[in-house]
Automatic annotation (TrEMBL):
Organism: Dyadobacter psychrophilus
Protein name stated in the entry: Type I restriction enzyme R protein N terminus (HSDR_N)
Domain (Type I restriction enzyme R protein N-terminal) ranges: 35-142
Top-level division of the source organism's lineage: Bacteria
Length: 149
């Protein structure tokens, strides 16, 4: 897998039926190691190590209904009240973050209504709040202690 613009972490990889799988510390199992999963695992570790989020507040690849479509969120951080706080959409490093990516996560916002939304492809990262249909970009991601007080 290629280097990302995210901190390295100690990961475990094993081969299942000849295909690489990476250990997901949130789901507590090995999952298929795709380019998007590589980004997701790096971002999970970033949120835990650099931003202080406890593993117990993570939901990974959780299903949701948007209109009549079944969708899956990549990473969702829940508040202490089990409400969506931060929703992260991960893309593979070779997928550019475009307006379509922001539109995708904004659709999830209508259903889940987290306080913060984020998009990453492992190379570029964006965090923003959606307020009254307006996007307000943040300089950084919220730290756990900032919303836990």
């Amino acid at each position: 897998m290629e280097s990302l613009n995210l901190p390295a972490f100690a990961y475990k990889v094993k081969h299942v039926n000849g295909k690489p799988h990476i250990f997901d510390i949130i789901r507590r199992k090995f999952v298929s190691l795709t380019p998007e999963e590589w980004v997701r695992q790096h971002f999970i570790h970033l949120l835990i190590k650099e931003y202080g989020y406890p593993k117990s507040l993570f939901a990974v690849e959780t299903g949701l209904q948007y209109n009549t479509l079944a969708k899956r969120t990549d990473i969702m951080i829940l508040s202490g009240e089990s409400l969506p706080f931060l929703l992260v959409e991960c893309k593979a490093p070779f997928i550019a973050v475009t307006d379509a990516t922001f539109a995708q996560i904004s659709r999830y916002n209508f259903t889940l209504q987290p306080q913060y939304l984020a998009v990453t492809n492992g190379m570029s990262h964006y965090c923003f709040k959606a307020v009254n249909g307006q996007i307000h970009f943040m300089d950084d991601f919220p730290k756990y202690r900032e919303f836990n007080n």
